[in-house]
Amino acid sequence: MSATKQGSKVRVAYDDYASYRWTIDRLLEAVDLPAGAWLEPCAGAGTIIEAVAARRADVAWAAVEIQPKYEAPLRKLIPSQAHVAIGDFVALAIEPREYPPLFAVSISNPPYSLAEAVIRKSQKLAGVTAMLLRLNFLGSQERADWLRVWAPDIYVLPDRPNFNPTLKKDKEGKDRMSSGDSIEYAWFIWDWRRISFRGSVQVLATTPEEVRGAEKLPRQQAARAAALPPAPTPPAPPAPPPPAPLAPPQPAAPTVPASEDQTRPETPGSKTDATSP
Ligand SMILES: C[S@@+](CC[C@H](N)C(=O)[O-])C[C@H]1O[C@@H](n2cnc3c(N)ncnc32)[C@H](O)[C@@H]1O
Q1: How close is the Cα of 261 to the center of ligand 1, in Å?
Q2: Residue 187: is its pLDDT beyond 70?
Q3: Which residue puts its alpha carbon closest to atom 9 of ligand 1?
Q4: CB of 122 closer than 6 A to ligand 1?
Q5: Do the Cβ atoms of 44 and 18 come closer than 8 Å?
Q6: Quick check: CB of 39 below 6 Å from ligand 1?
Q7: pLDDT score of 270
Q8: Among 131, 126, 133, which Cα is nearest to 264's?
Q9: What is the pLDDT of residue 210?
Q10: What residues have CB less than 8 Å from 97, skipping those under 6 apart?
Q11: Residues 84, 92: contact at Cβ < 8 Å?
């Protein structure tokens, strides 16, 4: 895997940082997401798919991922040929449907640099878009107009997931694992069943240190192995293939309460003419 240096931090190509399952568990405990066809637009090896599948039997998956190395693990989770596409989700040719949407839910931990594009495309394809993002995604001049139009509900993770554990030297020159990113994360949810364009904020349950530590350990071991001896510069990843067509599995409309039928908040680029509450 290639890495790029930005400032003092080394970032992995494609922002390839798998989610921790506990971050998904906290979301699923707190939010009643609709059953049906779900999309993972930047699926990696399928951590989110596995975590959801462990809790819910009422979800049928489709997944997109740009790196061909993840095709095999994704196909183990989603055997149907038509429901896994290897390619760029943002460029994927897939026609949105106005109502009901193609997918009940689009859920991911997208690469940060592509987050807005992934969210905007997800909003056209899915009734609910749920994205794990840095909390400071909210504070941006470029995104202000867009976020004002349809603000997300924010579910803050009180424990910081350390996506990129690194090895550091302490004062005595001994190797120490970094304690964590000093970045707060939250689930951002845009739900077209919501009446108001204004979002809400909730703080999710805390996750015990033993649970977080057990998931972090393999990454720390990998970071240690990569640090000793110094890793040679690996070749750049191959250019991604053009995305294959993607068919949603048995698309199901999200359950819409009778009083809120077909009033989807208007998003930039959307053709709906829903009235503002
Ligand atoms: C932060 S990782 C998260 C992976 C997975 N969603 C999870 O939560 O474990 C981001 C993933 O997005 C993939 N990715 C990056 N750019 C992409 C694109 N344009 N289209 C689809 N996948 C992309 C990366 O290869 C990587 O697997």
Answers
A1: 33
A2: yes
A3: 18
A4: no
A5: yes
A6: no
A7: 44
A8: 126
A9: 93
A10: 251
A11: no
| Average pLDDT of the chain, as a whole number | 84
Place of tokens 């009778």: 258
Q: Round to whole Å and give the CA distance between 187 and 157.
A: 8
| Residue 158 token pair | 């009180």
pLDDT digits (tens, 9 = 90+) for 157-178: 999 998 877 767 778 877 776 6
| CA–centroid distance, residue 46 to ligand 1 (Å) | 10
- Is 14 close to ligand 1, i.e. is its CB under 6 Å away? yes
Q: What is the pTM of this model?
A: 0.80
Average pLDDT over residues 82-89: 96
Angstrom distance (rounded) from CA 200 to CA 92: 31
23 lines ligand 1 (CB under 6 A): no
Res 188 pLDDT > 60: yes
pLDDT value of position 106: 98
Between 99 and 16, name the one with better pLDDT: 16
Distant-in-sequence contacts of 269-272, Cβ < 8 A, 24+ apart:
269/120, 269/124, 270/123, 270/124, 271/98, 272/98
| Number of Cβ atoms within 10 Å of the Cβ of 154 | 18
Which of 12, 42, 116 has most ligand 1 atoms within 8 Å of its beta carbon, as the pocket-test mutant?
Answer: 42
Amino acid occupying residue 220: Q
The answer to whether the CB of 88 is under 6 A from ligand 1 is: yes
